[in-house]
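Question: Hello, beginner here. Any chance you could explain the protein record under this note? Any guidance would be welcome.
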Amino acid sequence: MAGTVQCLGYKAFGLQILSEFPLPELPRTDHPGRIGSLSVVEGHLTERWEDIPKITPNLGIAAHEVMFMVKGTAIFFHTERQYHYSLSSSRRRSG
């Protein structure tokens, strides 16, 4: 049986935030709403990063998408009301 991801609710910056990952620096809410909300989810973004037009070596923009890379840490992607990130392989190692 496939595992389910439990999202945590936060309220910050005038937004309701649902995240697959703990964001301890943000205040929690038990009542995440839909208006002004965004989701934080993990994704695999390497191919998308390679394809997006770059305006600097670490920033890419196309239509309604914005991507940026923090070298050795992660690739971040924002579109509409979803925010994704992909950890670098060195950050995925445990222990």
